[in-house]
Amino acid sequence: MTPMTSAGAGSGTGTVAAARADARARAGLTAAAMPHVPASQSPHIPPGVPAEALVWAETVAPAGYTHRVVARGTRIRLDDPTGDACAHVFLLRADAPWERLNVADTLKIPWQAYLGAGHPLLSGDGRVLATVVADTSARHDAFCGTSTDAWNIAKYGEARPEGSSPSGQALFALAAAKHGLTARDLGPSVSFFQGVRVAADGTLAWQGSAGPAAVELVAELPLIVLLANVPHPLDPRADYTVGPLRVHAWRDEPTGPGDPAFDASPERTRAYLNTADDWESRS
Amino acid sequence: MTVLDWSGPLVPGAVVRDDRVARRASWSAVVAAGHVLTIVDVGGNQSADCLLFAADDPAERYSVPDTLAWSGNVYVGTGTVLRSNLGAPLVTVVGTEVERHDTIGGACSKESNTLRYGHHTAADHACRENFLYEGAKWGLGARDLVSNLNWFMNVPVEADGSLGIVDGMSAPGKRVALRAERDVLVVVSNCPQMNNPCNAFDPTPLRMIVTAPVAAPVTVPAAEESA
User: Fold this and answer.
1) Lesser CB count within 10 Å: N end or C end of chain A?
2) How do strand A120-122 and strand A245-251 relate by DSSP bridges?
3) CA atoms A265, A269, A271, A272: torsion sign
4) d(Cα A69, Cα A238) in Å, to the nearest integer?
5) Is A214 left (phi over 0), alpha (psi -120 to 50) or beta?
6) Which of B105, B118, B91 is CA-nearest to residue B47?
C-alpha cells in the first residue's frame, strides 16, 4: 500500500518550523531576471549613476513584464544587453490615469514618425508624459503596438500567460490591473529596440535590432509605467525570440528651458510649457 | 462658394439609414453586422474622424496598431480590415473613391491645438470635443478615446520619418464604404479644424448612408436635414 504523502514529503517540510526554515533558505538565491531591492544593490548599475540615487532596478525576463509609479523628474534607463529585448511601453499619468500616452499626438506634434533622442511621448491633453533623452539604438516603433493573444495564437500557436509565448497586451492587462486599471485604460503603445520603417507605399518594413543598446526616458509628470518585454509583432523569426530587459531609474530633473528637447521645436516648447503650467498649479 | 455633392450609396443595397452631418458636428450609430456604411465627402477634403466600438462590449474598440500590424501597411484603402484591440475584425473597407485614408494622424483637440498652432486656438471647437459629446450618449468617456481613423485625410510618411497632414486627395461627392463584420458602434466627428489642410480650411457636411445587402423591403427613415 502506498503511504499517504503530500507534495513536500521527503523534502523536510513536514512541520511548520521545517517549512519555514526551508522557505527562508531560498532567500539568498538569485535569478537572471529579478528586481533588486534596494535598487542600490543592482549588479548592473549604469556607468555614472550614483547607487544611492537609484529608485528602481530590475531585470525583466523575456516574456515578462513590470510596472512602477515614478515621480516627475525620474530618469528611466532601459538596457537591451543582448540585442533581442523589445521594450513595449505604455504610460499613464499616476495622479490622473485618464491622461495617458497618445501615440498619434506623439508622432503628429513633432512631425516625426520615428522615435529617437529628444522625442516627446505626449498625452492626449497637450502635455509631455516623458521624453526620450538618450538613445543608442534608433530602432524603435510607434506604429504596431504590442502583440495580442490573437496575434500570438496565429503566429506561435498559443498565448497563455503561463505559457511560452504570452502576448504583450495580456501582460499590459496584468500590469494595469495592479493599478486598478482595466482594458479601457490601455491604448496604443510604443516599443523600443526593434525597428520598423515605412516604405513609400506605406508598407511596414522590418528593421530589427541595432544590437545591444540603451534608451533613457525622463518622466515629465508622475507616471504609471507599464513595461512588457515580448517579441515585436512584426519580428520575422518563427520562434518566440526575446532577450532580457534591464531597467534602472534614478532621481533627475524634468525637461526645462535650456534643455535640447525643450527648445527642439515651437510645438515641443509649448508642450513643455503646458506640462509645467499644469504641474505648478497642482503642486 | 463650396460645391456640395451629396452623392449616394457606394454599394447596392436597401437604405436603412441616411443622415446628413452638419459641418463641425458629431454623429453616431450602430451599424449591424453585414450592413455597409457609405460616408460621403460632400464638400471635398473633409476629414471624417472616426472611432469604432464592438456594440456588445465597447471595451473592445478600434485599434490602430492592430490594424497596421495585421495589414502590414500604414495607409487604409480597399480591403483594409479595421481591427479591434483584440485583433478581431470590426469593419472592412469594401470600396473607396479616394486612394487612401489616414489612421496615424489622430484627432484634433483643444489641448493639442495649443501645441500645434498656439494658445489662441484653445477656444476652437475640436474632434476630441465631438468624440466626448457623442460618446457620452453611449456611456463612453475619456478612457474610451483611442487613436482613430480619418476618412478622406492625407497623412504621408516620408523616407526620413517626416509625417504630417497635407492637402487631401478627395473631392465633392467622393465616398468610402465600410462593411460591418459584427454589430459596430461608429462614432464620427465631422472635423472642425481650421488650422490645417484636413478640411481644405473649409469644414463641410458629411452624409452617412447605411445599406443592407439584400433588397428586402425595409422602412426608410427620412434623412434628417441638419446641414
Assistant:
1) N
2) unpaired
3) positive
4) 35
5) beta
6) B105
Chain A residue nearest residue B111, CA to CA: A126
Judging contacts by C-beta atoms under 8 Å, the chain A residues touching residue B109 are: 124-126
d(CA A37, CA A58): 9
Count CA atoms within 13 Å of residue A210 on its CB side: 15
| pLDDT, tens digit (0-9, with 9 covering 90-100), for A119-156 | 999 999 999 999 999 999 999 999 999 999 999 999 99
C-beta atoms of B66 and A271 within 8 A: no
Neighbours of A6 (CB within 10 A): 9
In chain B, what percentage of residues exceed pLDDT 70? 94
| Per-residue DSSP letter, A41 | G
- What is the least distance, in Å, from the CA of B185 to any CA of chain A? 16
| Residue among A150, A184, A197 minimizing CB distance to B88 | A150
Please indicate if any CB of chain B lies within 8 Å of the CB of A113: yes
Average pLDDT of chain B is 95
Q: Is A108 on the interface with B (CB under 8 A)?
A: yes
Asked if B157 has any chain A CB less than 8 Å from its own CB, the reply is yes
CA distance B92 to B177: 8
Beta-carbon contacts of B134 under 8 Å, excluding residues fewer than 6 positions away, are B26, B27, B28, B187, B188, B189
Cα–Cα distance, B136 to A97 (Å, whole number): 19
Contact B147 A189 (CB under 8 A): no
Interface predicted TM-score of the whole assembly (ipTM), two decimals: 0.94
